[in-house]
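Methods — Computational structure assignment.
A single polypeptide chain was analysed. Its primary sequence is given first, followed by the predicted tertiary structure written as structure tokens.
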Amino acid sequence: MSGKIFYSLLWMILGGLVVLVIIALFFQKDSKPDWNMVAALAAIIGVVCSAITYLASANRARKIETLKEFSIIREKYPNVNPKAKNPVSEEERDEYLKSMERFCTGINMGVYDIDVLRETAKSFLLTQYDSYVKDIILGKRQKSKNATPENLYCQYEKVINHLRREGRLLCRTTKNNAEH
């Protein structure tokens, strides 16, 4: 379930509980409110508010960590690009690929946020992969006797494919919306 849907659902539950409290207070047979019920509903509302706050802060922290980790990789390997003025050595390029594989493993496990990566570096990563990295990975797979596409830089390619699919879906959606 996406974060926005989940938060919306929690806020709807909270709103429903508030309505129940109001109904319970105003539509009782006697004039005195049942304070035990009010206290129980207030506790439930507090738990829901705490859950919303926790989830929002955890999501924000995950986004910040994504930005930090990707920035560290980009700062450490600024010239991993076929058009760079100072191209990197093969060893440094391999270290970059290893770093990206680890980072992409975190993306695929949900440790890092792919939405942040999409917003900050989608074009860069797709262009870099298509014009440079794809050939390197294919060459490494051909040279390695034990490597198969399923186990050599598969996490990195999974993220690239995810970013590529999202772009195509977005274009189709925009095109379909323009037709209707």
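Note: The helical segments are 3-26, 35-76, 90-109, 114-143, 154-179.
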